[in-house]
Amino acid sequence: MRNIILTLTIASAVLSAGDVSDIEDMIKNHWKNQNEKNWDAYVSSLHSGGTMNGDSNGSFWYRMEATVSAVTANQSPDNEFNFTPRYIEVDVLEPGKYAVAYYYLVGSYTIGGISKNDYRTRVCMVLVNERGSWKVKSGSYTPLHSGSGIPD
User: Fold this and answer.
1) pTM of the model as a whole
2) Which of the residues 60, 62, 107, 128 has the least number of beta carbons within 10 Å of its own beta carbon?
3) C-beta separation of 50 from 138 below 8 A
4) Are 109 and 118 within 8 A, CB to CB?
5) How far is CA 95 from CA 24, 29, 30, 34, in A?
6) Which contiguous run of DSSP H or E holds residue 6?
7) Cα-Cα-Cα-Cα dihedral of 9, 15, 20, 25, to 10°?
8) How far apart are CA 103 and CA 109, in angstroms?
């Protein structure tokens, strides 16, 4: 019986470790795709049922469809993004199903004619595995002290 429990514990740890690296890669690609305005790839990292978000401008929670038109609805063609996730920590709540990621997002942007080079935000993301791929279900963004969030 002890061997079965030990085997299950090790198997769970191995599954979680794979989930963690998969999630870290997904988060890095998520922001790379936004930086490059590769909206189809960006949207593919969102849960098909959409997301619930709270932006670093202090916005209320809002739902967003997982479509290019929803993601780009308020985007100007002149917008530029240079966001990099740092110090990613992942808590796998149930291997292969649910996880929460915590990290810092830093960089610069030009949004609606406003440019900042001191973007520093704490991020908490809820992730779910949908058909074998990790997807963003919810994101909460809070500006760090002396950092800027995004404009309204």
Assistant:
1) 0.85
2) 60
3) no
4) no
5) 15, 21, 21, 27
6) helix 2-35
7) 170
8) 18
Where does the pLDDT of residue 2 fall: very low under 50, low under 70, confident under 90, or very high at 90 and above?
Answer: low
Does the domain formed by 2-143 have CATH 3.10.450.50? yes
Amino acid (one-letter) located at 26: M
Residue with tokens 């500006």: 143
Q: Which token pair is 138?
A: 């919810």
DSSP secondary-structure letter at 119? E
Q: DSSP letter string over 31-96? A: HHHHHTT-HHHHHTTB-TT-EEEE-TT-PPPEEE-SSHHHHHTT--TT-EEEEEEEEEEEEEEETT
Per-residue pLDDT of 55-79, as tens digits, reads 888 889 999 999 999 999 988 999 9
Rg of the chain on CA atoms, in Å? 17
